[in-house]
Amino acid sequence: MAIDINQGKDVSAAHRVDWTPYLAGAGIGVLSWVVFVVVANPIGVTTAFSQLAAGAALPILGTDAVAQNPYWQRHPLRLDYGTLFLVGIFLGALASAVASRTWRIEHVPSVWRERFGPSIAKRYAGAFLGGALALYGARLANGCTSGNGISQGLQLAVVGWTFLVVMFASGLATTWLLFRTTTR
Amino acid sequence: MFPVTGIAALLLAVVFGFAFGWLLHRGRVTNYDVIVNQFRLRDFTVLKVMLTAIIVGGLGVLALVDLGAATYHLRDANMLAVVLGAALFGVGMVVYGYCPGTGVAAVATGSVHALVGAGGMVLGAILYAVTFDWVREAIIPVGSLGKATLTTLTGIPPLWIFGGLIAGAVLLFWIIERRAGAP
C-alpha cells in the first residue's frame, strides 16, 4: 500500500510500483478468456444472488408468491452454474485469506470508524442499507461491478460503460457528502 | 468440446469462482477501506484492478471471438434503467463498502459487517423481484438501445477503442504511481 511505500527507509522502495492490483486485474482478465471459451458464461454475481434470495423470500412472501413471481420464474432458486460460482468465490477468498494469514473478524473498518465512530450497530445499519441499495441498483442496471462493469465492459457494451461511468460518479458524490468532514 | 455443460460445468463453476475469489482477495478489493478510499481518491487499487481486467480480458476475448473460439454475451442497454441502477449502486457501494462480488468474498475473510450487508443485498434482491413487473413496464423500455456496443454506437473499430483505453490507462497509472512514490 502507498502508506507502506512512503514509510520505507530504502529510497529505491519509494519508487517501486506495487504490481499486485495489476496482476490481480490481469488474472481476472485471463479468467474471462477461460470462462468465455470453456463454459460460455461470463463472470457475474448478482443474478445468482437474486436466485438465492428467492430462498430467503419463501418464509417472508410465501411459496405461492415466490413461485408466481415473474422475475424468479426467469431466474429460479436452484444450484446452477451461477450459484455455484458464488460458492466458489466464497471458498477462494477464504482460502486466500487463510493462506496469507490475513483472515480476521472485522466489525467496524478503520475508515468507517474514523468518520462514524466505533458503534457496531451503526456500521451494521449502514452495511445493511448499502447492501440493499447496491443489489437493487445492480439488478435495475442489468448487472454489478463484475457482471456489468467488467464482463460487459470488456465486450465494449454500452450497458457496461454507462454503468461504470455513472456508478463511479455516484460513488464520488456519495463519498464527498459522507466523508468530507474527515478530509484533511 | 466447448462449451462444457452438465455436471462438468457445475464443477468448473466452483473452480472458476474459487479463482475469482482468490484474485479479488489478492487484489485487496475485499477490503472496505481500499474500496471507500478509491472513491475518496486516496487509493487507486480498485481502478487498477478493474481497468487491467477490462483491457486484458477484452483484448483476449476479442481475439477469441475472431478465431471462432468464443461468442459475445452482450446484455441490453436499457439506458434509463442502467443510469438509475448505477446511480443507486454507487450510493450503495460506498455505504456498504463492497460490491456484491467483493461483499461475498469479504464475508469469507471474516468481515462480519459484510455479512450483515449481504443480508441487505438479499432484501434488495427480494424488493427487485417484487417490483419487477413495474420496472419491466415503466423503466426498462425507456431509452432501450438493445445489445449496443461502443463500436455499433460510434462506428469506431474495437481495436481503436482498446488502443485509446490502453493509452488512457497507462497515462493514468503512470501519474498515480508517480504520486504514490513521491514523499
Description:
- The complex is a heterodimer of chains A (184) and B (183).
- Chain A is mainly α and 184 residues long.
- Chain A has three domains: 1-106, no CATH class; 111-140, no CATH class; 142-184, no CATH class.
- Chain A has helices at 2-7, 20-38, 46-61, 63-68, 70-74, 81-99, 110-116, 120-141, 145-150, 158-179.
- The radius of gyration of chain A is 20 Å and the shape is globular.
- In chain A, 52% of the residues are buried.
- Chain B has one domain (6-181).
- Chain B contains eight helices and no strands.
- Chain B is globular, with a radius of gyration of 19 Å.
- At the A-B interface, helix 1, helix 2, helix 3, helix 5 and helix 6 of A face helix 1, helix 2, helix 3, helix 4 and helix 5 of B.
Task: Walk me through the topology.
The complex is a heterodimer of chains A (184) and B (183).
Chain A: H1 2-7, H2 20-38, H3 46-61, H4 63-68, H5 70-74, H6 81-99, H7 110-116, H8 120-141, H9 145-150, H10 158-179
Chain B: H1 6-26, H2 32-39, H3 45-66, H4 79-96, H5 100-108, H6 112-138, H7 150-154, H8 158-181
Helix pairs in contact in B: 1-5, 3-8, 5-6
